[in-house]
Amino acid sequence: MSKQFTNKMADDVFDAFMDNRACQAAMFADFVVLLNMKAAAHQGSDEKMELLTEILNDLKLFVNPALNELSH
What we know:
The chain is mainly α and about 70 residues long. It is about 80% helix and about 0% strand. Helix 1 (about 5-40) runs antiparallel to helix 2.
């Protein structure tokens, strides 16, 4: 296999990976927008707002995991 062909294959694999990541990010952003729309629609309901706040806080933890601060 030529080096040029191998590089082309690697580029194609990387491009496919990045396309997939971009699609995942867009779907996640759409999900967060929907949650925010629900929050706006249910501002008057403390119970629903509490649940939506918990979900959004859990999402924040998922997206920004805590760093391990233990010293080595």
